[in-house]
């Protein structure tokens, strides 16, 4: 598994955006101290990551965890597990997500 420090990636994307830390905190319904705590996290709750993705206009799930590109990703073999941010999903759900045919993340969050 990739060694990802999501907090530092979020900080980097926030610095690239026009938002201040106070504005960002307000939009994700957190306090400024909590935002600084997020910057120090190696992992993050999926609900919060989805909200941060919406606010910053960056698909952290695809780009960071799935190594997203504009090319189609090679799908795992039937014997290998398929996960999106720690949740096992079916091969069809993963195909749909990679093909951008459905919002698998919202489906996962509703389960």
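Sequence proposed for the structure above (111 residues):
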């Amino acid at each position: 598994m990739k060694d990802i420090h999501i907090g530092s990636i979020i900080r980097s994307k926030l610095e690239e955006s026009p938002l201040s830390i106070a504005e960002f905190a307000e939009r994700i319904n957190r306090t400024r101290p909590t935002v600084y705590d997020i910057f120090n996290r190696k992992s993050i709750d999926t609900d919060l990551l989805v909200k941060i993705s919406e606010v910053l206009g960056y698909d952290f799930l695809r780009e960071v965890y799935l190594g997203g590109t504009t090319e189609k990703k090679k799908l795992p073999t039937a014997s290998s597990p398929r996960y999106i941010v720690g949740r096992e999903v079916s091969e069809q759900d993963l195909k749909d997500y990679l093909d951008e045919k459905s919002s698998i993340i919202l489906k996962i969050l509703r389960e």
